[in-house]
Write a structure and sequence with these properties.
alpha/beta, binds magnesium ion, binds uridine-5'-diphosphate, 7-stranded mixed β-sheet, single chain
Length: 318
């Protein structure tokens, strides 16, 4: 099979009106630039006519490949499957709703091929979305930027390009599509940059993500950061904390006992140990500490049985 320049991976859920226009636009850009390409549609369980539209489009554009999910799994699972199928040198993801412009493709391709970036993330600098969406998104991006150390402004932009190796090395799941750059960095791909891209208002249909995106986004950020740092060695975090707390509890207990003994030796009436706040601090600290220790230990045991415990990414071998 001849080498393909670009794999376009396009997840879609109920976007029947946009697809013909998208196909035409992509075809035009690809032909103008003489790219060989495949356009992989992942129909994420649409219940409108999206799949029929794709079947029709495939008759006029043989570069189309498409997969249909039986039900709606979400954008991340759709991307995951698209990444598995992709064969192009450069893989470009894009939303199906015409908000991302295919005119960005040539430059996104060039930045991977010539500037040798691993990942180029779109940045919807001038964004055409309601304020209820743009404001929380600003906050998220700032948090993600600080937490991950990746200097990009728009983690969740649907328009991104990747060196093939990147998408074959990461596993997008749940709602992790928001944090693909973090997953890539974690896998060892450090050449990550961004490019300002054009963003259009939604022409047809409506957004598929509601207000719950904020909560999920937050939890996923915690999860991705946490598993990056401690996923392989949970004991480092939990058991260190646990040990510190148990030690604290121990020290306080010693203090309490010596105090009491010294007072009694001097013949004074000593306050009952259970009358003092310190006693309760020692108690809670001891209990919580041992639970933390145990949590770390259990995590470690789970890890030991994990099938991916020795899953390392090897770049070259001679
Ligand atoms: N999408 C999907 N599965 C879903 C939700 C969305 O494949 O469960 C697709 C959707 O069809 C679109 C892209 O993901 O192509 C981005 O979705 P949307 O435009 O609704 O997100 P927004 O632009 O509002 O962030
Ligand atoms: Mg959209």
């Amino acid at each position: 099979m001849s080498q393909i320049d670009i794999s376009l991976v396009i997840p879609l859920y109920n976007e029947e009106e946009s697809l013909p226009e998208l196909n035409e636009w992509v075809e035009r850009v690809m032909n103008e630039n003489k790219f060989s390409y495949e356009m992989i549609f992942i129909d994420d369980g649409s219940n409108d006519g999206s799949w029929d539209v794709i079947v029709e489009l495939k008759k006029i554009n043989p570069n189309i490949r498409a997969i249909q999910f039986r039900r709606n799994y979400g954008k991340s699972p759709a991307l995951f499957v698209g990444f598995e199928k992709a064969q192009g040198d450069v893989v470009i993801t894009m939303d199906a709703d015409l908000q991302d412009s295919p005119d960005e493709i040539p430059e996104l391709y060039r930045m991977i091929k010539e500037d040798k970036y691993d990942l180029v993330s779109g940045w919807k600098h001038c964004r055409h979305d309601p304020i209820g969406k743009t404001l929380p998104s600003k906050l998220f991006n700032r948090t993600a930027r600080i937490a991950s150390g990746i200097k990009i402004h728009d983690f969740n932009c649907g328009l991104k390009s990747y060196r093939k190796k990147v998408i074959k090395s990461i596993e997008v799941y749940g709602e992790m599509h928001r944090y693909i750059p973090i997953l890539a960095k974690k896998a060892g791909f450090n050449r990550i940059t961004e490019k300002v891209v054009e963003h259009n208002p939604r022409k047809y249909g409506k957004s598929k993500f509601g207000i719950e995106r904020m909560l999920k986004g937050y939890i996923d950020l915690l999860s991705v950061m946490f598993s990056t740092k401690f996923g392989r060695r949970p004991m480092y975090l939990f058991s260190t904390l646990g040990t510190l707390m148990i030690l604290g509890s121990f020290v306080i207990t010693i203090i309490l006992i010596t105090q009491k003994l010294m007072l009694q030796a001097d013949g004074e009436v000593a306050r009952s140990v259970t009358d003092q706040p310190l006693f309760f601090m020692a108690l809670t600290s001891g209990i919580i500490g041992s639970q933390l220790f145990l949590a770390g230990f259990l995590g470690e045991m789970l890890n030991r049985n994990s099938s991916i415990r020795n899953n390392y990414l090897i770049d070259e071998e001679i």
